[in-house]
Design a protein that fits this description.
The protein is an alpha/beta fold. The protein has seven helices and six strands. The chain is globular, with a radius of gyration of 17 Å. Bound molecules: flavin mononucleotide. The site of flavin mononucleotide (FMN) has 16 residues, from helix 1. The site of flavin mononucleotide has 16 residues, from helix 1.
Length: 203
């Protein structure tokens, strides 16, 4: 089982990436075989342009390895910081560049990250608008990490012990649920019911 962790922050030293690395260690500690991190730090993907649909060589070279990585994944963790009450543009751009061929009918757990008391807006945004055509399946369990600087740090002295203990337990529990959805939804894809040449886009 391969669960890819998408870290949606553009910042190089992002808290989202810190959270991604913690989740990676939890997943690789017996929950799945592989848990690679796909980080959007430093904006590795240009904004969508018409060349994506016209098959420009530039885009083919960039997207082929990305699509292979996503298509070979059985499930996802989507980590989004809250930026001005939104999902960062680079993460929304990733969803423009991906299709049901890579993400369709695979489970994803959302993890929102905030340095303050935020985190609800990007969850609502992802659940409302990021899955229609690619058919990614967000599971009901989600994580909102508030005051993120105070938790999940390697140096225990930097952590608020009470919050840190809570988040570590809660994340591990939620990842166990994601694992079961990942097994279950493989059956849905393997059933053949989701395959169609007629209904390429969601309604
Ligand atoms: C452009 C920008 C806008 C932000 N807006 C918000 C916000 O609206 N609400 C919030 O809780 N935090 C906001 N933050 C702070 C983030 O919560 C903080 O950077 C946190 O560490 C998560 O982002 P990161 O993964 O990029 O580090 C903002 C940060 C940036 C860089």
């Amino acid at each position: 089982m391969k669960i890819t962790i998408i870290s949606g922050s553009h910042r190089v030293n992002a808290q989202s990436l810190k959270v991604a690395k913690f989740i990676q260690t939890q997943l690789e500690d017996g929950l799945c075989d592989e848990a690679p991190i796909l980080s959007l730090a430093d904006n590795p993907l240009p904004l969508w342009d018409q060349g994506v649909w016209d098959g420009d060589e530039k885009w083919t070279a960039l997207l082929t390895p990305l699509k292979e990585q996503l298509a070979s994944s059985d499930g996802f963790v989507v980590i989004t910081p809250e930026w001005h009450g939104q999902v960062p543009a680079g993460l929304k751009n990733l969803f423009l560049l991906c299709s049901k061929n890579e993400l369709g009918h695979k489970p994803a757990m959302i993890v929102a990250v905030s340095s303050g008391d935020g985190g609800a807006y990007p969850i609502a945004e992802l659940r409302m608008s990021s899955y229609k055509n690619n058919r990614l399946c967000y599971i009901p369990e989600q994580i909102i990490i508030r005051n993120v600087e105070q938790v999940l740090n390697e140096d225990a002295k930097e952590n608020n012990q009470r919050s840190d203990t809570f988040y570590r337990e809660r994340i591990t529990w939620a990842l166990g649920i994601l694992k079961e959805y990942t097994s279950a939804l493989a059956q849905v894809r393997n059933s053949g019911a989701t395959q169609t040449d007629k209904f390429n886009n969601g309604m």
